[in-house]
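Archive record:
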Amino acid sequence: MSLNRSEQRLFDYVQRHADERHHWTAKVQKLAATESDPHAVARHLEGELWRYYEERTTHVPAFRDAARHEGQQRTSMKNLAEHLLRLWVAPKPKKPAGPSGGLNAH
């Protein structure tokens, strides 16, 4: 999984701050539990991660410096959203396969 600079910065920040990590772990797990479509969860999470990134830009020097140097245009957080889902949400069990080929064994 390759994260862009903004995604990596946010991931590193969350990993270094236990309160933030607990908040995001709970949020990711709750979203995944309430929505059956993992793509929908990732889309929703992607928007929330970007809003959080913007908010951190006003409080965290590393984010503020990056915004000054890189600009503050909207950056995708899709890879990070998908990465967090893989890290923090147990995969849903696959449904058992039905009868093979629909043939009846006699």
